[in-house]
TrEMBL record:
PANTHER family: MAL-LIKE PROTEIN-RELATED, MARVEL-CONTAINING POTENTIAL LIPID RAFT-ASSOCIATED PROTEIN
InterPro entries assigned to the protein according to its UniProt record, in alphabetical order: MAL, Marvel, MARVEL-CKLF_proteins
Gene Ontology molecular function: structural constituent of myelin sheath
Top-level lineage group: Eukaryota
Signal peptide start and end residues: none
MARVEL domain: residues covered: 18-163
Pfam families: MARVEL
CC per GO annotation: membrane
Alphabetic keyword roster: Membrane, Transmembrane, Transmembrane helix
Alphabetical GO biological process terms: myelination
Localization per record: Membrane
Name listed for the protein in its UniProt record: Mal, T cell differentiation protein b
Amino acid sequence: MASTTAQPVGSLPSGLGVCTTVPDVFYLPELIFGGLVWILVASSHVIPANPLGWVMFVSIFCFIMTFIWLMIFLCGGHRNSVSWAAADFVYHFLAAFFYLSASVALAYITCLYGNGLLAFGQSITDLNTFNRYYRIDIAAVVFSHIATLFYFIHCILSAMRWRSF
């Protein structure tokens, strides 16, 4: 028996329907893993800071924009139109692209650091502190790639929804 509250093909959810429809169910994992990347990279002390600055920008930007996008959908501030479906696809495509670039940069810096080609600041002198920060960076790389995967899946499913309009 079909539910009477099911979303018709080509419609955008609003209210609590965002929590139960695909691709919008990915908002929460995107926020969780993006927030974890933000926290872990912020607690790192790797030098040079330039690639990590890009990772921080991407994680903070995507976290804030995903939260705003989720609130727009939850409050019903969007109209059920092709332009909103297209904007949803474009945003998640850009977020997936940004997160992929940030994930690759973070993985590269972490590999260089693990091989001894980069160093932390002068404040780190013992092996235990080195290992702790290295593990934090590895966790940030893993969570960054997971966030990239969620944004990519959301992008593909948003494109399918946009095409169904």
